[in-house]
Amino acid sequence: MDVTRRETEKTRTPRSNGAEAEIMEFAKDFIEAIRNGNLDEIMSFYAPDVVAFDMMPPFEIMGRDAYRKSWQMYSEGMIFPTEQEMSHVDITCHGDVAFCRSLMKMKGQMKDGQKMDMSFRNTSCLRKINGEWLIVHEHNSVPIDMKTEKAIWNSEVKH
Amino acid sequence: MDVTRRETEKTRTPRSNGAEAEIMEFAKDFIEAIRNGNLDEIMSFYAPDVVAFDMMPPFEIMGRDAYRKSWQMYSEGMIFPTEQEMSHVDITCHGDVAFCRSLMKMKGQMKDGQKMDMSFRNTSCLRKINGEWLIVHEHNSVPIDMKTEKAIWNSEVKH
Question: What's this model's pTM, rounded to 2 decimal places?
Answer without folding.
Answer: 0.89
